[in-house]
C-alpha cells in the first residue's frame, strides 16, 4: 500500500509538471492525443455553455461567456497547485507520516497540511519533519512552490500582452470594415482614390496579425476563450472578414491587390486550419449559405456603386465558391465551438460602428442623451 501511494504521488507530480511545461513553457502545438489541460477545458466549456444558455438572459449571455476564459485559467492553476500538494502529501503519508506536530496529531490530513504549508512556503512551524528524507522532500516541494509562483507571474503578463495585441488590431478594424467587420464594408470603404494602396497595406498588416494570432493561440490556447470587449467583435469574426475580402479579390475584383490578397489568404487560412486541429472541431458545411447567388448579385451592385468592379461570369462564381470551401467549414466549426456569430458578407443597413455609438448608455445606464 505504501509503495502504491508513493507511485501515485510521484505520478501526480510528474503529470502536473509536464502539463505545466507544455502549457506555459513549450512554444509549439502539442500533438499527443490526451492532455490533462485539453481534457479540463473540453469538459468544463460545454457545461458552462449549457448553464449560460439555460439560466442567463440572452442580453447578458455574452458577458457571462467572457467570464469563462479568466475564471477557467484561475481554476486550472489552482487545480495544478492542488494536485502537486496532494502528490507530495501521499508521499509523506506513505513514508509513515514522519512529522511532529504541536498537538501530537498525525495522519493523511496532517501530511496534507504539511504539504500545503511547504508548497506555499508559509513556514508556520507547527508541523516539523522528523527524518532526513522528509526534510529533503520539504526542500524539494518548497523549491517547486517557488518555481510554480515564478511561472505564474511570468505567464499572466505574457498572456495579457498577447491578448492586448490581438484586440488592438480588431479595434482598428472597426472604422475600416464596420461592426461587425464584413467584406462588403472593407471593400466599399476603400473605394476612394488611393483605396487600393490602403487596402494592400491593410491586408499586409492582417497577414502579420494572422501569423501572430496563430503563434499566440498555439502557445496559449486559453486565449481563444478570451472574448473581445464588444459583443459584435471577436477574433473569429475579424478573421472571417479578412478571408472573405481576400477571396473576393482573388476571385476577380478588378484593379485590386491580388498578390497581397493571396498571401494574406494563405496565412489566415493556415491559422484557421491549425486552430481547428487544436480544438478538435470537425468542419461544418455552411447552412444556410452565407453568400447565395442573389446576395452575390447584390454584393456586385454594392461594390460597383463605389467603383469596385467584381467580374461577371460563371468562372468568377466558381472560383469564389472554391475559395470559400477552403475555409468556411472550419470557421463554422470554430464558431459553433466558441458560440460566436460569423459576420455576413454584406453589412446590414441599421448597423452602426462602435465608434459612432453612444457607449455611455452601455456603461452608465442612468445617463440621458
Tell me about this structure.
The protein has 369 residues and is mostly helical. Helix content is 67%, strand content 2%. It is elongated and about 85 Å long. The model is unreliable at 359-369 (pLDDT under 50).
Low-confidence stretches: 359-369
Would you report the number of β strands? 2
Query: Structural class per helix/strand content?
Result: mainly alpha
Q: H/E order of the elements?
A: HHHEHEHHHHHHHHHH
Largest sheet: 2 strands, antiparallel
> What is the helix content?
55-70%
Task: Compute the number of helices.
Answer: 14
Question: What would you report as the Rg, rounded to the nearest angstrom?
Answer: 26 Å
Question: How are the SSEs ordered, and which strands pair?
Answer:
Blueprint: H1 2-25, H2 36-55, H3 58-94, E1 99-101, H4 108-119, E2 127-129, H5 132-172, H6 174-177, H7 183-188, H8 195-219, H9 235-252, H10 258-278, H11 293-304, H12 314-325, H13 328-338, H14 360-363
Helix pairs in contact: 1-3, 2-3, 3-4, 3-5, 8-10, 9-10, 9-12, 10-13
Amino acid at each position: 500500500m505504501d509503495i502504491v501511494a508513493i507511485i501515485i504521488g510521484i505520478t501526480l507530480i510528474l503529470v502536473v509538471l509536464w502539463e505545466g511545461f507544455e502549457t506555459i513553457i513549450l512554444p509549439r502545438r502539442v500533438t499527443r492525443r490526451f492532455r490533462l489541460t485539453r481534457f479540463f477545458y473540453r469538459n468544463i466549456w460545454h457545461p458552462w455553455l449549457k448553464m449560460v444558455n439555460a439560466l442567463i438572459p440572452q442580453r447578458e449571455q455574452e458577458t457571462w461567456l467572457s467570464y469563462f476564459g479568466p475564471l477557467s485559467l484561475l481554476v486550472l492553476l489552482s487545480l495544478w497547485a492542488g494536485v502537486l500538494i496532494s502528490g507530495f502529501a501521499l508521499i509523506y503519508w506513505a513514508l509513515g507520516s514522519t512529522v511532529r506536530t504541536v498537538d501530537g496529531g498525525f495522519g493523511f490530513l496532517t501530511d496534507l497540511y504539511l504539504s500545503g504549508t511547504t508548497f506555499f512556503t508559509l513556514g508556520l512551524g507547527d508541523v516539523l519533519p522528523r527524518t532526513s528524507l522528509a526534510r529533503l522532500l520539504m526542500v524539494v516541494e518548497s523549491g517547486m512552490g517557488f518555481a510554480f509562483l515564478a511561472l505564474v507571474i511570468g505567464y499572466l503578463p505574457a498572456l495579457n500582452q498577447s491578448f492586448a495585441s490581438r484586440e488592438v488590431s480588431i479595434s482598428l478594424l472597426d472604422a475600416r470594415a464596420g461592426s461587425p467587420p464584413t467584406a462588403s464594408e472593407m471593400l466599399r470603404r476603400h473605394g476612394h482614390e488611393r483605396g487600393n494602396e490602403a487596402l494592400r497595406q491593410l491586408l499586409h498588416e492582417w497577414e502579420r496579425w494572422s501569423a501572430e494570432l496563430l503563434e499566440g493561440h498555439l502557445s496559449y490556447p486559453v486565449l481563444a476563450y478570451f472574448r473581445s470587449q464588444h459583443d459584435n467583435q471577436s477574433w473569429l469574426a475579424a478573421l472571417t472578414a479578412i478571408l472573405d475580402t481576400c477571396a473576393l479579390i482573388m476571385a476577380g475584383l478588378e484593379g485590386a491587390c491580388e498578390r497581397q490578397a493571396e498571401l494574406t489568404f494563405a496565412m489566415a487560412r493556415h491559422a484557421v486550419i491549425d486552430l481547428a486541429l487544436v480544438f478538435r472541431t470537425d468542419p461544418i458545411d455552411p447552412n444556410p449559405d452565407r453568400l447565395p447567388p442573389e446576395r452575390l448579385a447584390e454584393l456586385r451592385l454594392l461594390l460597383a456603386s463605389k467603383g469596385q468592379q467584381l467580374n461577371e461570369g460563371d468562372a468568377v462564381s466558381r472560383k469564389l465558391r472554391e475559395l470559400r470551401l477552403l475555409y468556411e467549414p472550419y470557421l463554422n466549426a470554430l464558431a459553433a465551438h466558441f458560440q460566436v456569430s460569423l459576420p455576413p458578407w454584406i453589412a446590414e443597413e441599421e448597423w452602426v460602428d462602435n465608434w459612432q455609438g453612444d457607449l455611455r448608455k452601455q456603461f452608465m445606464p442612468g445617463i440621458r442623451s
